[in-house]
Design brief:
The complex is a heterodimer of chains A (186) and B (182). Chain A is of the alpha/beta class and 186 residues long. Chain A has one domain: Rossmann fold (3-Layer(aba) Sandwich). Chain A is built from five helices and six strands. In chain A, strands 1, 2, 3, 4, 5 and 6 form a six-stranded parallel β-sheet that branches. Chain B is mainly β and 182 residues long. Chain B has an eight-stranded antiparallel β-barrel. In chain B, β4 and β5 form a beta hairpin. Chain B starts with a helix and ends with a strand. Classes of the chains: A alpha/beta (186), B mainly beta (182).
């Protein structure tokens, strides 16, 4: 089982990337986790480039195709999804009928330094991912005041948040296993 | 007179297979300001009518057979947001009771969509047998009913600026079946 983590925050000290590292620790040992590091290089979506996609897009598409499930961690910019993350999903959505997110189990979590923990951005990203045809886990993890939520070792300080993250990851893996079993049965 | 009255309460005996070229199952659902329509074709269906008049109708179609006027919407309808074709690729119907009264037919049965099977009642009209240009006997069934899509787990919606949902839950179904005697 391979799980890909995509952080919508590009900065090196990102709380969302930290949340994905915590997700990696909470996943079972037999799960390979990859933290995607190429989002910053993905150029703006341009339909003219679809037939000869930029290398950074190809790399992103390959990473998504290779994953059995994806964890997105999104910050909230102006009450919504960061532009570069939406842009990446827009690239991944094309062409809609055969895109690499199609039927892919995905879950969305998010962190912000504000009071609401990127809850709106998570809701919007879930909607966008569902529109691409992804199998979106119904649930969120809003991590508010994220700068106070990790201990010195970078672990989630609050058991409640860790438990919620684990719960969402379990739901994600359940969907991924169900898809695997369905593929075998078919 | 009594013979005619009896015949008008039963369907003509035989095995009647759907003509997939001319038959269609349609759906209509209120969306924003109007009614959005789509269809499934081809469909498979067989009507079996025993000599005693008892009848059964079974039918199915692939979710991939959905026809709408935009390829992106067609793709969206296949996804987990709607029919979830990966896990439930087929829509099936099986009747439990068929009652004819003159030209009116009522078909009660079970409809399975997205892994959920629920009772549904379809009513409509029956067209008496004719012989087609190829010498085959044909009858027609035109049925209609409605379902609540959310009961099948099809919950997608999008709010209008007013906050009202864009897509209604009640979906009208129609089945225009051309049936050819086997």
């Amino acid at each position: 089982m391979r799980v890909l983590g995509i952080s919508g925050s590009l900065r090196s000290g990102s709380h969302n990337t930290q949340l994905l590292r915590e997700a990696a620790r909470l996943l079972p040992d037999d799960v390979d986790f990859e933290l995607y590091d190429g989002l910053k290089t993905v150029p703006p979506y341009d339909a003219d480039d679809e037939t000869d996609r930029p290398a950074a897009v190809e790399r992103l598409v390959d990473a998504v195709r290779a994953a059995d499930a994806i964890v997105f961690a999104t910050p909230e910019y102006n009450h919504s999804i960061p532009g570069h993350l939406k842009n990446a999903v827009d690239w991944l959505s094309r062409p809609l009928a055969t895109n690499p997110l199609r039927n892919k189990p995905v879950v969305v979590v998010g962190a912000s330094t504000g009071m609401l923990g990127a809850v709106w951005a998570q809701a919007e990203l879930r909607k966008v991912l569902a529109a691409t045809g992804a199998r979106v886990v119904d649930g969120d993890l809003p991590l508010p005041q994220a700068h106070e939520r990790f201990d010195e070792e970078g672990r989630l300080a609050d058991d409640e948040h860790a438990a919620r993250l684990k719960e969402l990851l379990d739901a994600l893996l359940e969907q991924a296993h169900a898809r695997e079993e369905h593929a075998v049965a078919a | 007179m009594s013979t005619i009255a009896q015949a008008r309460d039963t369907l003509p005996a035989g095995t009647w297979n759907v003509d997939p070229v001319h038959s269609q199952v349609g759906f209509a659902v209120d969306y924003m300001i109007g009614t959005f329509r789509g269809s499934f074709s081809p469909v498979e269906a067989t009507l079996e009518v025993a000599e005693d008049g008892s009848a059964s109708l079974v039918g199915s179609t692939q979710v991939g057979n959905v026809k709408v006027q935009d390829e992106n919407l067609q793709a969206h309808l296949q996804s987990p947001d709607f029919f979830d074709a990966e896990r439930a690729p087929k829509i099936t119907f099986r009747s439990s009771e068929i009652v004819r009264s003159g030209e009116t037919v009522t078909v009660v049965g079970e409809l399975a969509i997205r892994g959920t099977t629920l009772p549904v009642e379809l009513t409509g009209t029956f067209a008496e047998p004719i012989t087609d240009p190829y010498g085959r006997e044909r009858i027609g069934l035109a049925l209609a009913g409605s379902v609540d899509r959310t009961q099948f787990g099809i919950n997608w919606n999008n709010p209008l600026p007013s906050g009202e949902p864009a897509l209604a839950n009640v979906v009208s179904l129609t089945a225009e079946l051309y049936l050819v005697k086997a």
